[in-house]
UniProtKB/TrEMBL annotation:
GO MF terms, alphabetically ordered: catalytic activity; molybdenum ion binding; pyridoxal phosphate binding
Domain MOSC stretches: 120-264
PANTHER family associated with the record: MITOCHONDRIAL AMIDOXIME REDUCING COMPONENT 1 (PTHR14237:SF19), MOLYBDOPTERIN COFACTOR SULFURASE MOSC (PTHR14237)
Name of protein: MOSC domain-containing protein
Taxonomy, superkingdom: Bacteria
Pfam families xrefs: MOSC, MOSC_N
Length: 265
């Protein structure tokens, strides 16, 4: 291990449960990374739909920009969805959290419905999210499960891969920040870290679910429930099977892959 941990990878996921984007650099703030989980697939009632029940979502790529997002998937024509197409405010639910978002993009509704084989809606968080982190009412949140950022140590993934007996892609676990150069699961003991000009507070461990059993390259769910089954053998806690740490940035900065990560406490 190196003497100083470094930020070794940055990822964002413009549409919840769809394929992520690897970044070399990005602004970051209390809201997380720009465009991260700004769009989402939902049912007719506004309840979130994810790769837990529709694993083929991981094969859809999303390229975001100031005016909207472009969707592409195997066997489907590419579709640009302008933010101006979202004309109707609609109550939305993510993990029991209810908040307003936007729907009305008919072409996008039809695109995701045809791809997934059921009647669905494509939602936008809006120009400014009304949602907040449950435990931190001043921290804005998009369509992410519960926190703006997820951090995982590369050594932690390597340790899980070694137990499983085969290499696992980090994409299965959908982090925003990957840190290399620390011991396996060192992030469990961190309280605050500094990257660039901002301090990041470790909020709580991330509870993992069946989504980790979806192969990000094929969109198939593992019949043997791996790697969740192996993870449960040594990472199970009263709150669930834990892997990675939810993080909140306490300021704004520019992140660049390769930056040192200073553990403050």
């Amino acid at each position: 291990m190196s003497a100083v941990p470094v930020l070794s990878a940055l990822y964002r996921y413009p549409v919840k449960s769809m394929r992520g984007e690897s970044l070399d650099a990005s602004p970051v703030g209390p809201h997380g990374l720009p465009y991260d989980r700004m769009w989402m697939v939902a049912d007719e009632g506004g309840r979130f739909v994810t790769g837990r029940t529709h694993p083929e979502l991981v094969l859809v790529s999303a390229r975001p920009g100031p005016a909207g997002v472009t969707l592409s998937a195997p066997g489907r024509d590419e579709l640009f969805v302008p933010n101006s197409a979202f004309t109707e405010a609609w109550p939305t639910t993510v993990w029991g959290s209810e908040f307003p978002a936007w729907r009305g993009a008919a072409a996008a509704d039809a695109w995701v419905s045809a791809y997934l084989g059921s009647r669905l809606r494509f939602m936008w968080i809006g120009a400014a999210t009304a949602r907040r982190v449950k435990t931190d009412s001043d921290v804005p949140l998009t369509f992410a499960d519960g926190y703006p950022l997820l951090l995982i140590g590369q050594a932690s993934l390597d340790a899980l891969s070694a137990r499983l007996g085969r290499p696992l892609a980090m994409a299965r676990f959908r982090p925003n920040l990957v840190v290399s150069g620390a011991e396996a699961f060192a992030e469990d003991s961190w309280k605050r870290i500094r990257i660039g000009g901002a301090i990041f507070r470790i909020a709580k461990p991330c509870e993992r679910c069946v989504f980790t059993t979806v192969d990000p390259d094929t969109g198939h769910k593992a019949l043997d429930q791996e790697p969740l089954r192996t993870l449960a053998k040594f990472r199970k806690a009263p709150d669930g099977v834990l892997f990675g740490q939810n993080v909140i940035a306490e300021g704004e900065t520019e992140l660049v892959v390769g930056m040192p990560v200073e553990v403050l406490d």
